Amino acid sequence: MATKAVIFDLLTALLDSWSFWNAAAGSEDAGRRWRTRYLELTYACGAYRPYEDLVAESAIDTGLPADAVSKLLASWDSLQPWPEAVEVLKTLRNRGYGLGVVTNCSADLGRRAIARCGGVRFDAVVTAEESGFYKPNPKPYNDILAALGVDPADALFVAGSSADVPGAAAVGMQVVWHNRANLPAFPGSAPLREGRTLQESLHGFLGYKGLTRSEISTPSLYLNRKKFAENCERMRQRAAGLQAQFRVHIKTHKTVEGTEIGLSHGEDRIVVSTLKEIEHVAPLIRKGTVRSVLYGLPPAKTYIPRLASLKRRLGFELILMIDHPSQISMLEASNLEDTWSIFIKVDCGTHRAGLEPQSPLLTSLIQTALQSSDKIHIYGFYCHSGHSYASNSLAEAEGHLLNEITAASDAARQCLQLRPDHPQLTISVGATPTAHAASSSVAEKIQNLIPGKLELHAGNFGLLDLQQVSTGLVALDHVSSWVEAEVCSVYPERQEILVNVGTLGLAREPGREPGVWGRAMILPAEMEDLEKAYAWNVVRLSQEHGILAPRTTDPKEKEELVNKVPVGARVRIIPQHACITGAMYDSYIVVDEDEGECVDEWVRCRGW
User: Fold this and answer.
1) Cα(484)–Cα(545) distance, rounded to whole angstroms?
2) Which of 213, 228, 291, 400 could, after both became Cys, cross-link 268 (CB 3.0–4.6 A)?
3) CATH topology for 5-201?
């Protein structure tokens, strides 16, 4: 089962109560003896007795002065979290885990201790007093699971003391042990992991930042942040050359960080392909980085209430894509008091969505929109040349771009003929290949052609993939994202190798080369000549495994390549289609250099 919640012991796993007890006892040695005796009494206690009584009894048993207990309790509000605790809690929260605490103390002291955790919100807190029992009795563990609404198999428990390990495991939870004090293991303890810090204890749950490639399991999805930013800047310059505003489609990477880099020069417009993407970038909407959002396909009927709710709640410019009069009727029937802005989708040859420029259905749709209530506003006309992915040259891609501009402009003229006083229209065009063809020379060719303001849109340009490389408009060195896998076996007789990634990690997307599902290099490799370094093809895919074979047809070169590959070697694979491959992973492992350590992790939006 996937972990849904992380549950912490409070007074040892999250807070430095050891120093706290030592200070009240007068020395580290006295504090440790006192705390050890207290733990013994707690473990044997069973049903709840007042926490303060156990603290006092253990002080007497270890010969401490009478004022030690009063010192401890009087300084309770000075408890300090471990140095990394607040950051760890925030990271877990940002990664979508529920957070809980179960602690062996009174309800009052438990709430006061929670307040020392840097203001982090916990979804549920259970104290021994509220439960009626001290850990490691099963009841407190079961109570916190019930409060969080998760099954034991879906929870991870972070133990602070040794008895918590078998105690939490006994109710079915996974357990890691934050053994900060280097305590001896309790009989029967078998944590999944033991660490002296929270990061060590929660390795794998906090992400990959700071880890080197050899420490990261495969298959994994990587992104070179510098190359991504360079690709975004290159596209911004192309839009500027075209004298067009730029709208960034975020459907390829689906991340907050990638969106922010794509808009880093003042653009504030995006396209999304799912409603979840809008929700995912809500922080950027709230701070004004994103002001205009186009939902980039005709909306399903059940989506309209959600879209209306998002628009009301976040207060951004929302534009919908329309290509049928029934969609206008659905919008008019909605409970949105505000106006719905729409792009009318024009089919310029892809035949996926939209209406052809000369179609009487397009004319009828424009008329319907113009004659509708004040709830509908035609924002502009939108074209996307999906078929431009078959381009083989800059000239061919430029031809597709000019066709997009012509088709959308023709549709806009129809609108203006029907209503000459219509507010200025936006002509939105682009696909990654046609956007790469945008330039000042194209701008000169379309002078006086645009009946409105021009907007360029594209999505895959930041990451790129083999489909984009095959157009000849970008090089292998521009590709900023790849999948990393490992060699599981080598087969010299058939000159192939087996890797631990298949269809569910690469996707089965066809490319220009028949039977090639990706290109791969065996690491380490000489990066000066990437065409030579990516010497392997992904030639067959099963669900979880793939087969690589040398690209060369020379028998001797094939033999040499295969014989040089060690089992366990890392493999870098460029997929055919970055959008589909990305959907297989929760996040990008972000590096600034291809061989560097992980500098960040970008969590991808998933779902609809």
Assistant:
1) 13
2) 291
3) Rossmann fold (3.40.50)
